[in-house]
Amino acid sequence: MPTTTVVHLLRHGEVHNPDGILYGRLPDFHLSETGRRMADLAAAWFSDRDIAALYSSPLERTQETAQPLADRFGLPVRLDERLIEAANSLQGRHVSRGSFTDPQVVRRLYNPFRPSWGEPYTEIAARMVDIVKVVRKEAWGREAVCVSHQLPIWTVRRAAEHKRLWHRPDRRQCELASVTSLTFEDQRLVSVGYCEPAAELYGSGPGVPGA
Q: How would you write 45-102 as a 3-class SS string?
């Protein structure tokens, strides 16, 4: 019989970001109060699962999302750079509709297929596939959680489903504190699942989307 292993990719909860900054990899962006409640709901969703390993991006918002899981399962949170947010040359800027008329922004948007404003999709996919393989090996026959960010999770999902990596950002299925689950039989991916444990809290925060 094949051995079943599940690697769950958990997106972090809502971030306190009242100024609407594209925070990317910038330090000192923490979960909001709603984001902490999202993390608690996500941890509760995993409560009946056989979680053997817990990994996180090194950014504060992902570590804070991982902590309720660490507390619930008594697991250390292992930080791994491969789970970090995608690099973005626009980070630190205020995000609004008007941003896309700024010449400093527009000149970086010439190639949506790479994309020209940040880390290539192929590189994001490669590092995410790499860490999933490492975690799958560690959690062999059980389940693991990797806390990451919207674009890395969505990119590795598209790679897993053999879809083109470039896409429309507004069509990503990867909400705050959502879970994308990769189920393997031995080394073969057999299914991709998706769940939103914190859906009841969507719209309860300040309305500034996370990343």
A: HCCCCCEEEEEECCCHHHHHHHHHHHHHHCCCCEECHHHCCCCECCCCCECCHHHHHC
| In the chain, domain spans | 4-201
Q: Is 64 helix (H, G, I), strand (E, B) or coil?
A: helix
Instruction: Give the list of residues 6+ apart from residue 30 with CB closer than 8 angstroms, or none.
Output: 15, 16, 60, 61, 64
pLDDT bracket for residue 90 (50, 70, 90): confident
44 vs 155: CA distance, rounded Å = 26
Class assignment of domain 4-201? alpha beta
Residue 110 vs residue 90, higher pLDDT: 90
Tokens for 15? Answer: 């971030």
Report whether pLDDT(173) > 70: yes
pLDDT at 209 over 50: no
d(CA 86, CA 99): 20
Alpha helix stretches (DSSP H) within 19-93: 33-45, 60-73
The CA R_g of the chain, rounded to the nearest whole Å, is: 17
pLDDT at 210 over 60: no
